[in-house]
Amino acid sequence: MKKLLILGAGTAGTMMLNKLSTALDAREWQITIVDEFETHYYQPGFLFIPFGIYSRRDVVKPKRDFFPPGSSVVMSGIDRIDAAENRVLLSNGMVLGYDFLIIATGAKIRPDQTEGLQDAEWRKSIFDFYTIEGACALADFFKRWEGGRLVVNVAEMPIKCPVAPLEFVFLADWYFTERGMRDKVDIHFVTPLPGAFTKPKASSILGDFLDRKNIRLTTEFAIGRVENASKSIVSWDEIEIPFDVLVTIPTNMGDEAIERSGLGDELHFVPTDKHTLRSEAHENIFVIGDATNLPSSKAGSVAHFQADILTENLLAAIEDRPLRASFDGHANCFIESGFGKGVLIDFNYDTEPLPGKFPLPGVGPFSLLEETKMNHYGKIMFRWMYWNFLLKGLELPIESNMSMAGKRW
């Protein structure tokens, strides 16, 4: 019997398990998924926890709830991938061989990569919201906070969900306005990018939002260290920005097992063909989601679009056919702008976000590059879609590659 091994049971790995359990003949293929943790987190929901919109229970479910019946599951950490021998060595001592391997080990924050970030003020006046622990700690802090300088800093790119830091400052503006203390809170968004976002068109629009909401913007800030005693972040060229509360989006890196395996770049992301999703180094290894080094967003929507492409190409590789399915970098993001409204952007490797209607041309119901209540509802509804459709590998009425239908140049 041939063996397909999936490393990682997050969003991307779980989708692939579900899709391939249907696509491959169980009499010929054994599919095994490996992950260290039993709990699945709806990571887009972490954004809402500091503002009391979601709680911990809204973003947590058992991973096994989303595995097909009879799935072969190994709960263990990964020591390393021995690609030369087509095997994976696990932390529990097991060795798993494979004919084909899918790497879906994701990305995680690494606050240890910034000097001083995890020192005396960590989880006292310095918080993250990219982990469940950080988001919950920040929620508790905000309930008691009486105001001051709130600095939101992106350490470096790439990061998971690139719009989330902007959404955070928009929601903070709304939250403190509702509490009647917005005049006591100075919100400052500090980014290494030359603008508010990675795409110039969207960056211009989102930058206007920052101006309207009286949120300060500092661009091209490369953080070098955090001074805990003086409560300030300092760039490599010694520009200093003081804070009373620092919300950090630390450096994002791939799994350490990728480094130990010699398969990653300097951030432990796997060099991957940006169209076929095949490893650049090994023909029987494919990579999906945040584990890749692709110039696309590290977001759940991207993993969803990649999953269809990867399924088609993996089946082609198994049958020794050319890999004809091509991923175009498609990303689709709802952006919370506060006060019950949101913005929707849809783009790929080559095409900037454009105005128009989505997903039905001329109908919507969502509007691209416009702030609407319906876009906010789309963001909120997505959690239900995630649990009930996305993770289970079910088809959604959105094409994997970006469509120009309904868009206006």
CATH architecture of the largest domain: 3-Layer(bba) Sandwich
Helix content: 10-25%
Percent range for β-strand residues: 25-35%
Shape: globular
Strand order of the largest sheet: 5-2-1-9-20
Helical segment count? 7
SSE class = alpha/beta
Radius of gyration: 21 Å
Distance between the termini: 52 Å
By CATH, the topology of the largest domain is FAD/NAD(P)-binding domain
How is the main sheet built?
5 strands, parallel
What is the CATH homologous superfamily assignment of the largest domain?
FAD/NAD(P)-binding domain
Low-confidence stretches: none
- This entry's quaternary arrangement is single chain
The count of strands amounts to: 24
- Please tell me the overall pLDDT: 95
Q: How many structural domains are formed by the residues? A: 3
Quick structural overview:
The protein has 409 residues and is α/β, with parallel strands linked by helices.
How would you characterize this protein structure?
Helix content is 23%, strand content 26%. It has 409 residues and is α/β, with parallel strands linked by helices. A 5-stranded parallel beta sheet has the order 5-2-1-9-20, with helices on one face. A 5-stranded parallel beta sheet has the order 11-18-12-13-14. The N and C termini lie far apart (52 Å). 44% of the residues are buried. The model has no long low-confidence stretch (mean pLDDT 95).
